[in-house]
Amino acid sequence: MKKEDKSIIIEQLKKTVGGYAHFYLADIGGLNAAETSELRQVCFKQDIKLVVVKNTLLRKALESSNLDCSEIYSALEGETSVLFSNTGNAPARLIKDFSGKSKSKKPVLKAAYVEQSVYVGADQLDALINVKSKNDLIADLIALLQSPAKNVVSALQSGGNTIHGVLQTLGERQN
Fold first, then answer.
1. Taking the CA of residue 20 as centre, how many other CA atoms within 13 Å lie in the half-sphere pointing to its CB?
2. Closest CA relative to residue 111, chosen from 39, 55, 169, 34
């Protein structure tokens, strides 16, 4: 491959890395053509971009990006595919579901950059599945903050109903 071609690919990878909030490195070697095609279809349906890359080109793209993910470089060995996503745990779920159905038990997680944190090794897959996105955490926080207010309103409404019932009973007794 010519040096100009390599620099073009590195720039494209750098733009792709910058265009997505999260990325996963996975080994999909050993999948047959049908399984690879099925994996690509599943990725497309879930808005995950799957790219097969050369390790050295990906490393150069990561080094030239503004991300601090030097811990990932140790996972850049063997066959590497990158799954780009804007949802932090979507690729982890896809990897777990697809590898469970696959005869070769692939793809296998090598490393991930999710929510500005680096995860290395296949043993991190369950932790990545449980990672909540920033929007999920905000929604949980709002629900927690709304809960006491809802309880107060509910108590006031039920108290009003109780008082109304007592007054109605007293009014019926006098007649």
1. 26
2. 55
- Tell me the average pLDDT across 81-103: 90
Look at residue 92 in the predicted model and tell me its pLDDT: 92
First-last CA distance in the chain: 100
3-state SS, one letter per residue, for the chain: CCHHHHHHHHHHHHHHHHHCCEEEEEECCCCCHHHHHHHHHHHHHCCCEEEEECHHHHHHHHHHCCCCCHHHHHHCCCCEEEEEECCCCHHHHHHHHHHHHCCCCCCEEEEEEECCEEEECHHHHHHHHCCCCHHHHHHHHHHHHHHHHHHHHHHHHHHHHHHHHHHHHHHHHHC
Average pLDDT over residues 2-30: 90
Assess whether pLDDT exceeds 90 at residue 50: yes
**Mean pLDDT, to the nearest integer, of 56-79?**
89
* pTM beyond 0.85, yes or no: no
